[in-house]
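Tokens as discussed.
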């Protein structure tokens, strides 16, 4: 065995400085790194936005929320959004808070943006653990997703419309994990503070416990056909169409993970892949929204990863 002492990997803007490692000599494998994750569409100003920041209320009054299960829909511009049972888009408001849950939309605001009553919906396509309620000032209970109060927009007059997207720069369609749909800005973290996620951190998953996620909230996975000694990726060719190598991160932008466990694998095409405890890390194209774990157990060879690089089962 060959010890690699004081290994230093430097990349512009994403320098990763590491201590002692024991991953063994790298061996080549065919294949290339996949393309970067597609960026969401930029937030746009919804039609009919008013100077008050929440838009005018149609003469017909507040829009009613259809009772029944929540539904997810793929919008060609915004990606995955949550709708009510009738297909009307649901929104979140930047001036609200998620922890603690609180709505700051009352009066005329609530006429243009009717709060979704907590008792009118069931989780449906949204994880039950992400749904909840918040007490409003008038004593009613409003539905929350990941702590964020959710609303309809009165100027959405037909299912599938997203006229509220970007209104006042504060209203956005909501994703199944409570984030803002269709934005290129950093997503809010799980605490709902509005801060961007670290480049690498841990997330509490209902079934798997604390698992590693990247800066976009994507679950990272290990492949049991890879090896740690020598450090080698055996995901090649068609495998890389579904499993994309995780990119290097700045050790100053990680949370809950020992930086000494991180090292860079140079793939045969010269691209760099992040590893933990000498195991290559990947994200799964089948995970459509942050927090998804659709790759868990695929082929009995792919598993989410714990902070110490072990398989999460």
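Sequence:
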């Amino acid at each position: 065995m060959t010890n690699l002492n004081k290994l230093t990997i430097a990349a512009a803007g994403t320098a990763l400085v590491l201590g002692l490692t024991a991953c063994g000599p790298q061996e080549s494998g065919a294949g290339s790194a996949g393309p970067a994750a597609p960026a969401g569409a930029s937030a746009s100003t919804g039609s009919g936005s008013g100077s008050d920041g929440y838009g005018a209320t149609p003469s017909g009054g507040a829009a009613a929320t259809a009772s029944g299960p929540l539904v997810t829909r793929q919008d060609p511009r915004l990606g995955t959004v949550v709708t009510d049972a009738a297909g009307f888009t649901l929104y979140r408001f930047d001036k609200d808070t998620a922890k603690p849950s609180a709505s700051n939309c009352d009066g005329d605001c609530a006429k243009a943006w009717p709060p979704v009553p907590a008792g009118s919906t069931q989780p449906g396509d949204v994880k039950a653990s992400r749904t909840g309620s918040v007490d409003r000032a008038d004593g009613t209970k409003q539905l929350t997703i990941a702590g964020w109060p959710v609303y309809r927009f009165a100027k959405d007059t037909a299912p599938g419309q997203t006229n509220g997207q970007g209104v006042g720069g504060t209203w956005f369609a909501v994703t199944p994990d409570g984030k803002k749909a269709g934005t290129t800005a950093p997503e809010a973290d799980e605490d709902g503070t509005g801060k961007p996620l670290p480049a690498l951190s841990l997330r509490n998953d209902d079934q798997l416990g604390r698992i590693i996620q990247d800066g976009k909230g994507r679950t990272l996975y290990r492949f049991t056909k890879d090896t740690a000694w020598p450090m080698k990726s055996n995901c090649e060719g068609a495998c890389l169409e579904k499993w994309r190598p995780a990119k290097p991160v700045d050790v100053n932008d990680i949370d809950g993970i020992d930086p000494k466990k991180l090292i860079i694998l140079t793939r045969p095409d010269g691209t760099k892949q992040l590893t933990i405890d000498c195991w290559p890390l990947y994200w799964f194209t089948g995970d459509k929204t942050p927090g998804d774990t659709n790759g868990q157990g695929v082929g009995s060879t792919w598993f989410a990863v714990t902070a110490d690089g072990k398989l999460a089962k």
